[in-house]
Specification:
Blueprint: H1 8-18, E1 24-28, E2 41-42, E3 52-53, E4 57-60, E5 69-75, E6 89-93, E7 105-108, E8 112-116, E9 119-122, E10 131-132, E11 143-145, H2 153-161, E12 166-170, E13 175-180, E14 184-185, E15 196-197, H3 200-210, E16 215-221, H4 225-236, E17 241-245, H5 256-262, E18 266-271, E19 274-275, E20 279-285, E21 288-293, H6 297-315, E22 325-329, E23 333-334, E24 341-348, E25 353-356, H7 365-370, E26 373-377, E27 383-384, E28 389-394
Parallel strand pairs: 5-6, 13-16, 13-17, 14-15, 17-21, 19-24, 22-25
Antiparallel strand pairs: 1-12, 2-11, 3-10, 4-6, 4-7, 5-9, 8-9, 18-20, 20-21, 22-28, 23-27, 24-25, 24-26, 26-28
Helix pairs in contact: 1-6, 3-6, 4-5
Length: 395
């Protein structure tokens, strides 16, 4: 083989081996979503903090059912009234209110018959306790969150529940985005003969923003070594990662590898057994990184999802594990060459089947707009029959 292609897994391992976390900072809980936790979090309270009613009803002794029962009073949520419940007695209680120690069951109000102003009867045969016991979810001192998790809204609820209003997180990488290509103009401009609008730049910025990363857009870079070097040098002044598209292949106007070497970067990947995204560059110099994507928009999108996210999440202090499922293909699939791991835009139907889309190759970005997943075809596989299962990665 003329080119020394490495596998996608080898490329991912190179990224894992080289990406180093960038430090720790403290943020307010309200700003922590999408960040990676840099400390273990422990509970300062029991949860629930008392025996709590799981529903609206009446707290009583189970051995006194079905009754009749005398109603001693009422305990609303938020109050802590003390009742001593004896034989043939109960207390009306609301969801979330503390259950008196002398009660061992809360009967649902839906199964209660009102006999008079202060007497009731239980009308069902048996009852669950309907009591959330003190500390049954979390006990004081328990670890509730571990360092390294990507904080989601449900984690915010846990932080709030233990009073952790300020939290240590790993620093996010500052990312510079640029696109190379003398044929490009920005979207606001009307292309003249031989020109096309820059779609990769806005696409990459949007992908990074969906990860809640700080992004600085450096625009379009001319296809010359000097322009490429100047743009990269400028971006390196304030950024940890440079994400660029175009100029990473082996053409006469692909200056990125040459510039990286001249600036002292070690080039770690250049050619992957991947389709799209064969020419994907990863370079490192100290704690700064360059991730170079092919110029075609589907290639750029896919490899930022597959390899780029692994780099960025590793720098943020966690690993990136894409959600992948197996689903059945609705038609026969064939391809001529099987020497690359291929990603195809597809639709996962409501019935859980994989439907192929019209797709003309890595420049056909419109195919991605109709897709809700990427189908994965491993190296060595050239035929997949209808009804066979394939891995798909939801988008």
């Amino acid at each position: 083989m003329a080119e020394n292609m490495i596998s996608i897994e080898e490329a991912l391992q190179i990224v894992r081996d080289n990406a180093e976390v960038l430090g720790v900072e403290s943020v307010e809980m309200s700003e922590a979503t999408g960040r990676v936790l840099a400390e273990d979090v422990f509970s300062d309270v029991n949860m629930p903090p008392f025996n709590k009613s799981a529903m609206d009803g009446y707290a009583c002794r189970k051995k006194d059912l079905p009754g009749p029962l005398k109603v001693l009073g009422e305990i609303p949520a938020g109050s802590f009234q003390t009742f001593s419940i004896g034989q043939g007695e109960c207390v009306k209680i609301m969801t979330g209110a503390p259950v008196p120690e002398s009660a061992d069951v809360v009967i649902m109000k839906e199964f209660v018959e009102i006999l008079d102003n202060d007497h009731i009867r239980y009308t069902k045969g048996d009852s669950a306790s309907n009591i959330c016991l003190l500390g049954e979810d979390v006990q004081k001192g328990d670890k509730v969150l571990s360092a390294g998790i990507l904080i989601r809204p449900e984690h915010i609820a846990v932080l709030a529940g233990v009073g952790k209003t300020t939290v240590d997180v790993f620093r996010r990488p500052n990312v510079a985005v640029m696109t190379t290509g003398s044929e490009l103009v920005e979207p606001i401009e009307k292309p003249s003969a031989g020109q096309i609008r820059n779609s990769n730049g806005p696409q990459m910025v949007a992908q990074l923003q969906s990860m809640k990363l700080p992004v600085q857009y450096f625009g379009i870079v001319e296809d010359t070594a000097d322009a490429t070097k100047l743009a990269v040098q400028n971006a390196l002044q304030e950024n940890d990662v440079i994400l660029l598209s175009g100029g990473v292949s082996v053409g006469d106007y692909d200056f990125v590898p040459e510039v990286m070497k001249n600036l002292g970067f070690t080039i770690l990947t250049t050619v992957m057994a991947a389709k799209p995204g064969k020419h994907t560059l990863f370079a490192r110099k100290g704690n700064q990184y360059v991730f170079g994507l092919p110029g075609n928009p589907v290639s750029s999108y896919v490899q930022l999802e597959v390899i780029g996210k692994e780099l960025l999440y590793r720098l943020m202090g966690t690993s990136f594990t894409p959600f992948r499922i197996k689903a059945q293909l609705t038609i026969d699939f064939r391809r001529k060459k099987s020497n690359r791991y291929e990603f195809l835009p597809v639709i996962i139907s409501p019935s859980g089947k994989v439907e192929l889309l019209p797709y003309h190759g890595s420049a056909h970005i419109h195919a991605l707009t109709r897709a809700n997943a990427l189908m994965e075809i491993p190296v060595g596989v050239s035929e997949i029959n209808k009804g066979e299962s394939v891995y798909v990665r939801p988008l």
